[in-house]
Amino acid sequence: MFKIHLNKRLMLYCCIGVGLLTTTVPNYAITDPDSDSVYDYLSSLSLEELGEVEVTLSDVFDIFDAVVAVKEVSVATGTNQSTARAPAVTSVITASDIEAIGATDLDEVLETVPGLHVSRRDFGYAPIYSFRGIYTQNNPQALVLINGIPMTGLFFGNRSHVWGGMPINSIARIEIVRGPGSAVFGADAFAGVINIITKTKNDIDGTEIGARVGSFDTYDAYLLHGDQWKGFDVAFSMEYHDTQGHGEIIEEDIQTSYDKMFGTHASLAPSAVNVQQRNFDARLDISRENWRLRTAYQGRHNQGTGLGEGSALNPNRLTEDRLHADLTYHNRKFTENWDVTTQLSFFNNESGAPVESWVLPPGAFGGAYPRGLFYSASFSERHTYLNLSGFYSGFKKHTIRLGTGYHYGDFYEVKELGNSGINPSTGLPLPPGSQVVDFTDTPYASMPEKARQNWHFFLQDAWAFAPNWELTTGIRYDEYSDFGSTTNPRIALVWQMTPDLFSKLLYGRAFRAPSFRELYLNNAAVPLPNPNLEPETIDTLELAIDYSVRKNLHLALNLFAYEWRDAVRFLPEPTDPNILSVQNAGKQTGQGFEVETRWLVNKNFSVLANYAYQHAVDENDKNSGFAPHQTGYLRTDWLVYPNWYLNTQLNWIADRKRAFGDPRTALDDYTTVNLTLRRKEIREGHWNFAMGVRNLFDIDSREPSVGPGQDGIITIPHDLPLAGRNYFMELRYRF
User: Fold this and answer.
1) C-alpha neighbours within 13 Å on the C-beta side of residue 254
2) Distance (Å) of CA 570 to CA 88, 527, 587, 623, 681
3) Contacts with 8 (C-beta within 8 Å, 6 or more apart), sequence order
4) Which of 52, 279, 293, 323 satisfies CB 3.0 to 4.6 Å to 241 for a cystine?
5) Number of other CB atoms surrounding residue 574 within 10 Å
6) What's the CATH code of the domain at 131?
7) Which residues pair with 720 in a beta bridge?
8) Is the pTM of this model over 0.85?
9) What's residue 152's pLDDT?
10) What pLDDT digit, counting tens, does each position of 59-113 carry?
11) 239 within domain boundaries
12) Is 441 within a domain?
C-alpha cells in the first residue's frame, strides 16, 4: 500500500495558493484569430488561447527571428499538448531559449529547470541528473531520449560514463518530465524524462555555420543545413568540440589516503582533474510524406576519466563511438479515426580504454605495483527497437492510445585486461607488479557477454467527461527475459478552472530495470552481483497549478511526494560481513514543491525565475544526502539596444546534507552568475556574434563526493570542484 505524507506546511501553502489564484481570475470570451500579422493575431486571442502561447522577448522584438507558437510537449502522453493541459509536470526549452542563454552544452540548459540539478560523479566527471532529490552515482533513474529513443546502456543502466555531453546547435527543443513516465516510456523513466528533439529541415531552413572559442583551450565548430532535394526534406548537421577542461585542482584522492597508510608519495594529488574532451557529432534527417529516416554518429575521443574508476588521479583517456538510426512511419489519417506510428530503430555503442589504464598510480600499495594497478575494460552493445502505436478517436469524448513494442539488447563483446586477479593461464593469483594479462573470454572475466529481451504493451485513455475536465488513465505491462515482469499505471485529472487557470492531480508508478553490472559483474573490487535482483519502483503523487495572470505574466506551482522502494544498496553478506553484495534493501521517501514564473516586464525586459525545495529520507529515516534541498534560478533578458541583447543568469544551490555516516561538514552553498551579450542582424541578418562569461565572480563551487566506504576511507575528501570563471566568444553566419 502506497502512503504519502505531505507535511502540514506544504498543504497550507497549496491551499493558500489555490485560494489566491481562483479568487483573482476574471472570465473572458473566446474569439477566433483571423489576422496574418503577429500583433493582430495576439490581440485577437482570448486569455485561454494566450495561456497556450509562449510570448518571449525574442518573439515580440524578433531578436532571434522566432515566431509566436503554441508551447507544446509530446513527452507526457505521446501526442502534442500544451504544457498547461499535459497530464504531467513538464518543461519545454526551445532552440531560442538555448541561444538566448548562450548555452554550449546540454547540461547548462538542464540546470535551468526547477527541481532538476546537474551534479557530477568522480568517474569521468559524468553528469548526474538529480530530479527532486533522487540521486545515485550511476544515475540510471533519469531517462534520456533522443527523438524518443533511449540512450540507455545495458552495463550501467545509464548514458555511460563516456557520455561526453550533448552539443546544442542541432537541438530544436528539449522536453522534460519531472516525475514518473514508465506508463509511457517503460524502464528508467523513474525520476524524470529528458527528450531531446533534433532539428528538421523546417527548423534549419537554409545553411548556418558557426565557431566558438573559450577558456581552457576550448574550440567548437558546427554546420547546419536544411533544404529540399528531389521531393525529400533533408536536414544535416555536424558539430565538433575540443577542450582541455577546466583543470580545477583535486587536493587529495584515494591514493593520498593509501600514501598516509604506507608512508609513500604515489598520489598525483594535488593536481588538475582529468576532464579533457574531443567530440564529433553528425546527424542526417530525411523525410517525405509519412516517412522519416534519421541517422546519427557520436564520437567521444580523448575523454578524460575525471578521477577514474578507482577515484585516483590518472592520465587515462577513454573513447566511445555511437551509431543511431531510426525509420519512422507516421500517418495522422491512417483511417478516419486512427493516427498510427511505426518505428524501427537501432543503436550501437562501442567504448574503449587504454591497455594500461590506471586504477591506482605507480607505487600503489607501498610500492607493490611499481608501474601502477591496471584494469582496462572495453564494451560493445547493440539495441534494436520495434514499436507500433496508434491513437483512436472514434469514441465520443475519448481518445484512446494503445501500442506494443519489442527491444533486444545485446552486450555482445567484452574485453578485459589487468595486472591483478587470477591468471587465466595458471589459475593462480597474479603477484603484485605483474604484467598486464588478458582476461577476455576466460572463466576469470568479470563481465560475461549477455543479452536482454523486452516486450511491452500499453493502453491509455483521455476522457473529456465534462466541460473543462479531462481524466487520463493509462497502464503499461513490460516482460523481461532476465528479471520478470512489471506493471505501471498512471492517473491524471486536469481541470481548466477558468480560461487561464489549470490544475492537475497526478499519480504515477515507475520502475528502473537492474543493470548488467548489478546482475552479473563478478569482480573482487566491487560488490557481488545479484542475478535475483528486482526492479526499483517509485510511486509519485503530484498537484500542479498553471496560471496565466495576464498575457505577459505566467505562474506555476507544483507539489509532489514520492516513495521509492527496492532501491539498490551495497550491503554486507549475511555469511561474511566483510563482503558486500547488491541487494534490494533501500527505500527513500521525499516531498517538496516547485514555483516558477515568466514575466514580460516591458517591451525591452523579461524575467524568468524558479525555486525548488525537496526533503528526502532513507530507510533509516536519515537524510538521503547529496542532492540540494533548495535550488533557485533567475534569468533576465534585456534588449539593451536594437539588435543588442544581454542575458543574465543566476544559479543558487543550497542546503546539501551529507549522507548518514559521512562525518564531513555539509557542503557550502554556492551562487554562480553567467552573462551573455549577443549582437544579431549584422549585415542584413547573416551574422550573429556573442560573448559570455561563466561564473562571473569566480565562486568556488563544488559537488559532493561519496562518503567513507567499508574501510572508512573517503575517496575524495574535498569534493569535486566545478569550473571557475571562464569566457567564450562565438560567431555564426547564415546563408
Assistant:
1) 24
2) 33, 6, 13, 18, 57
3) none
4) 279
5) 8
6) 2.40.170.20
7) 703
8) yes
9) 96
10) 433 333 332 233 555 555 555 566 677 888 899 999 999 999 999 999 999 999 9
11) yes
12) yes
